[in-house]
Records
---
Amino acid sequence: MVSSSNVSTPSPSFSEYSFPSHRLRALEDGSKTPLVLVACGSFSPITHMHLRMFEMAVDHVKQGMSEFEVVGGYMSPVSDRYNKAGLASAAHRVRMCELACDETSDWLMVDPWEAIQPEYQPTAVVLDHIAHEINHNLGGIPYPPPPPPPANRLTVPPTATSTPRKPARVMLLGGSDLLQTMSQPGVWSQSDLNHILTTHGLFIIERSGSDISDALAPLKEWSDAMGKNWMENIHVVRQLIANDISSTRIRQFLRQGMSVQYLLPNVVIEYIRERGLYREVEGFRESRASSMPPLRREAVDRAVRERRVVVEVDGAEGNGDKDGEEETRGRKT
């Protein structure tokens, strides 16, 4: 078990950044396309549901997407520039994610690149960054070469070559709230949606008892108008066991001195306790306005001040990264 005791919390910096690849797996089946899953969000704090989302996506791939093989998974915490209510510093959120992955998984990793950026980064840029690191800088994912021909066949003696590699497909992973924000006009840019849903792809963990058809309809309409087929790259994962753990609720519990045992990895609970995170009582409610990127948020804030609109609390009652999924809303414009 990983312990958070005496674990320093260095501030992320460009000079010390290196892309984490130590847990990327080689392809077992060289005929398949290597698949890397990426979840973007606040992770303030990371919960068991954030981790569970990856496992559900892997099962979905194994059971119904035989052309792919999952070789890695990344969490990408948003930077401090996001300015959301209740957001711990990027250094704390990155470290909590690292501790959680180290304690609970043998294949999940945390990429701090987005967290150390001085400006807000759209998710499309984050996905491109990870794809570039894996496919360009690392050269792709290694895979086993085909078996040698039978000994009785005349063949040209093989030459020494490096391990063969394949480019990985990088896909975004999120909950049903993320899909709903994508279907809201003006929240995500059309160019980013097209890039994500054409070049990369999307896994959505469906909330138990919910119907996402209303959220899919606008996306299909927009993709049809562009002559695209986004639907083939949206993969809906059924949540067979309901899990409504919310980072927003976790923060509320912590501020009220309530137990969060069994809701978060133990090492994360210990880290939060030792550093006194999420204890302060905030003087404002966490709202949709605070979940938007800086420029759009400023416009909404002006409208709120002028009493032209009333922004109600969302509650982040999606599934998966309730916090992370709600906070991806508007990060893409």
Note: Confidence is low (pLDDT under 50) at residues 283-333.
---
Amino acid sequence: MAEIWPDQSVMVNANVVIDVDNKNSEKNVNRSFIFSKFHAGYFRISISLASQALLWKALNEHNHSSHYYNQHFMEKLLSTTFLLLWYLSLLVLLVLSILYLMRCIFYFRMIKDEFLHFVGVNYMFTPWTSWLLLLQSTRLLNPEHFIYKGLWLFFVIPLLVLDVKIYGQWFTTEKRFLSVVANPTSQMSIIGNMVAAWAAGKMGWKESATCMFTLAITHYLVIFVTLYQRLSGGNQLPARLRPVYFLFVAAPSMGSLAWSSISGSFDTPCKMLFYLSLFLFASLICRPGLFKKAMKKFNVAWWAYSFPLTFLAMASIEYAQEAKSTAATGLMLILTLISTVILLCLLLSTALNIHNLVRPTNSVDN
């Protein structure tokens, strides 16, 4: 029988230990990198799905007040589509929320890094905005129900805390001046506040809705002017993030819906904001070269195309109900079709590139 010398035995044992350690390390990496590299920007997916469910709910309500051919079939189609979208958005939002909660618990240092990032901090509004949109789209609760109002408070309080922190930094902290950090994603805070105002108006809380709308529209004007000046913050935006330019469309569109819920009708201020969003949308689609580099490789930032157009389509529904003209109805159908097609394309692209969503990355710039 061959003899194993002591030094050979030590070498064999060391190799076994190293091999076991490497396997354990690989398992730990595979188990943890999803939590460690996941960031709030992924909630753009849930915002898109929840807003699309809300769009189809609004279409169903519009169908009730209109007299289309074969209205019963249309109602069944709209209701079925809405339910599918609502349950899909609920599932996706639950998964994303659990993943982000795990990230907060086990990788809190990365949450701090995300908060200090000039793009990443703006996406911290997206989880709460997603839940507010999903709450508005539900048929399970009436807006006047106390549970609905309690959930609204639960989702809005974190938005207000972020508002106080971030807006305060813009004019008190030298390294965080708005002129330095401003970029199109800065409008995410505006969108979150507008969504909160819209929901509050539907609940009948006019004072709360007016408060949130005032906070949103004031800072929207400041951000809009700052971004138009193209200061250093916007120039730092990576090419792959250029789809977020469509947030220019989202903010005034949601603003028109929010003010409509406060005033009780789609009046002149609502139309002014709606026309502004249409103009900005036209300005963006006339410049496809701006997004050429961003479209070379799939990125979760592509989801920034979806929900701004859905907000615009929802605003067009209220505009069509107010204008009662063939042109307004045609515009509503065109925008709804575009929004739906883009969502379907993004769902297909995401399914085909799901590995890209969970690959390790150290950047929130996606």
Note: Residues 1-29 have pLDDT under 50 and may be disordered.
---
Amino acid sequence: MRIAHRPRSLLPPALHFPSHSWSPNRILSFCSLPLQKPRTLALKRRRPERTIAAFAMADTEDISKAISAEEDAKFGFSRPEMYKSNLAGTVDQYDRHVFVCFRGPESWLPRVEETDLLPKLFSSVVKSRKDDIAIKTKITICEEREDTEFECGDVLIFPDMIKYKCLKDSDVDGFVDDVLVNGKQWTSAVQKLNGAYVFVCAHGSRDKRCGVCGPVLIEKLKEEIESRGLRDQVFVAACSHVGGHKYAGNLIVYSPDSEGKIMGHWYGYVTPDDVPEIFDQHIGQGIVIERIWRSAPTSNMRIIGSATMLTRVIISSLVACCTIVACSKKRIASNTCTWIVFALLSLFFLIFPRVLKLQLGLHCTFN
């Protein structure tokens, strides 16, 4: 990541685009399952002074979400486990992230990809063709909202920044075969995505912590978008389980870095107070926020990891040779010299990975 040395616009050049590109002709969604109207959550407040305020959003009716002191203490941002674990490197590696838009978190069952028709079909077909898909692919469900960037059946692919419109149940086999297996363009309407996309885990039926923290973060993100006038440049949506419930609030940001290259970064232990910094630093300048950074799971990191392993072997060999030479000059017994080499190498291999994680967190510019 590059740090700007002079005043600059909030968003990198890749995020400045003509407004007309964000008004595509809408195509009617043909999902076979009826859309459920989102329900308003009204949780009983026990201590008003501990309540997290809700945010009024444009283009939607006002949503009143409140977290009681008891819920916040057990599942929210003040729960005891917050900030207890090291976040760096807590995401499994993958090369492509596919989001399927389907209903919303209020209607998602704990295993939405195994129960509801469209997600179940998509997940099962991908699993059956796993050996044929050359690119390691992660599947996640994201919420649908009519007349937005996320409509029922839409499929968003990152870091390709491509959206396919209105996938139907009968299309799943052909879509997976054409797009994910053979790398072809599907016959359906395809749209190039621009801007920054933020996905927040709000899968409450899967884990209460995500169900409590996720909606509050989403509302704060949307409020920040409105206040900064970024409605056509930054998009936020709830998503299903992504792994690491204990790190809630969890969110994933796909956005251009300082050079305009699309990067995907995972964050954990995110609170509403972190949202302005995410806009100013990560989305605005392409700089990773190290203290809440989990990973940037791309194949390029694995390449860097291989190169790093070679570096470790070379350095460890040099350490061993230098130690042996020093021991011979000091006429130290061979057994003692062996133990010294062993201790130094053990210390090196324990410390080096931790230093590497910090470096990846501070300088995540992987091409």
Note: The CA atoms of residues 179 and 203 lie 27 Å apart.
---
Amino acid sequence: MQSSAIGIRKMGSAERSKKKVQLWKKAVVHFALCFVMGFFTGFAPTEATPQPAKNASFVAETPVQIPASSAESEREKFLEKREEEEEDGTEAKWIPRRLVVIITPVSNKDEYQGVFLRRLANTIRLVPPPLMWIVVEGQKDSNEASEILRKTGIMYRHLVSKENFTDPQAELDHQRNVALRHIEQHRLSGIVHFASLSNIYDLAFFEELREIEVFGAWPIALVSGNKNKVKIEGPVCDSSQVIGWHLKKMSNETEQVTPPPIHISSFAFNSSILWDPERWGRPSSVPQTSQNSVKFVKQVALEDETKLKGIPAEDCSKIMLWQLKFPTEKQLTTAVDSNHR
């Protein structure tokens, strides 16, 4: 009996162990199948279908009014203004600014030219564009002027003259002619003004320049540093019409000069007179024009004063340009010697 009971127990334990092995086999096979299915499913393209968020409400919300931006409001104002102008029969026209061409000669004999060039550049850079600054200097070893001009942020052209002069005034006149030939060759269309390094400007002066059609003139104050004297040179005007020229001192003395004096910095002209003189009633070929363009322009400006426009328009009574005459080293030495006597 005992032996039969022991045999039955052994058979039961063997069956239980077989069942456990079969369960493990099933589990391994099931796991392998799931792994293979998941592996190949990962490479298959799928499309994500959006599902509503949990507890999401499907009730339409009240639309929120978004305020118009400032740009849109400005656009609406512009359109309204344009409609009003169309109803009135008027339409605003955009008029571009004229190009101002400033010519500055630089003498190599001036030891303070770098200081004055920087000072003038600080003024010109405040003028609204378009503006071109043509700087002409004699040939020299130093590149100080080039370095100054590159840092100004102004549209400029730097020209170098290879001629040698003993007379400083003759050198400056030659450099101005070099600049005018450059303007004529490249047909730079604008209003030309000669600006010396010692000039001091009211910034409104450059806006007045842009109003010139053919020729323009204005009064200039000449200030001498060593003589304590101020002279006023320029046109006599009736409104904006030039009717004469005078030289007025601070002592209220008036000197009439024939031919009328015209300072190099007290007039401006339309550059097209250089390459299209027929447009302004001049012959197409004028002798010695290319050699001395400054003299030619002065002559044309003074031939017919009706073409001259006085600026500012209020009888040319406002000084907008000053020129400081700094004493030379020789003049300072002479003054010191005279004071010691």
Note: The two ends are 161 Å apart (CA to CA).
